[in-house]
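Entry type: protein chain
Record version: 2
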Amino acid sequence: MTYAIPARKPLDSFGTGVLVLLCLCWSLQQIFLKLAAHDVSPTLQLSLRSLIAAGVLGIVVLRREGRKILADGTLGSGLLVGTAFAAEFLLVGLSLGRTTAAHSIVFLYTAPIFTALGMHATRPEERLGRWQWLGIAVAFAGIALAFLTKESRAPTGAGPSLTGDLLALAAGAAWGLSTVLIRNTRLSEAAADKTLFYQLLVAGVILYAWHLASHDAAPTWTPIACASLAYLVVVICLISYLTWFWMLRSYLATQMAVLAFLAPILGVIFGALILHEPLEPPFVAGSALTLAGILLVVRAGR
């Protein structure tokens, strides 16, 4: 069932600036996960950050809504969106063990393609125009040029592999699906912290169950592992995600999703600087195409 929702506005200067800062935060997520992967598996890191942040948000939501916490009919939608959110980060965690951080973040951020297609199919006010379609095609072609190279077919190990890239691509599809579900269910008008609470709680439970079933090595809480967990909980879950959901209630999701292409570009740069991952000429050409596609979509939307 589709619910009527107020019209969202195109991205303005303020919204664009906030989204660029969010992309900067998100671009470091895979870097931290990869840095701490030898001490704590990415899946466990993602599980713990989700459960801790869900606990904090649960207290906030419960204090505000009390016994009426489930009276708004969002439970079913919350469980559905939470499952998509869990799938996204389970696939991210698995991909990081099979490919580089750069490849993981780039293929994760194909999510705007899936979001744009889903919103085009479900929301009349977000149908894509001719120039927006062209912009998405150009942006995706840039990503393909930069990363669908022979390295992505290297054997599984320290470098990128086709399996790891496909897992990250599937994570992008799950992210796109969760955005479309939020916009087309009762969660569209729910408080941002409540929407995020559902996602984090369901994801935390599912990811922790996966960790127990996978028999990963016991965690070693080194300083970098603790720093990674703190970054994931505070910066990613409790700041960036709440800001993202607030923006979803104010701006057009299609434009937001496409502008998020900035995150993989920043992620690859940080991967080269921090993890010493190779920065090759195809990326330079691909990133230029990606930026051109982003600018085309945003400008055409206005």
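Comment: Residues 150-157 have pLDDT under 50 and may be disordered.
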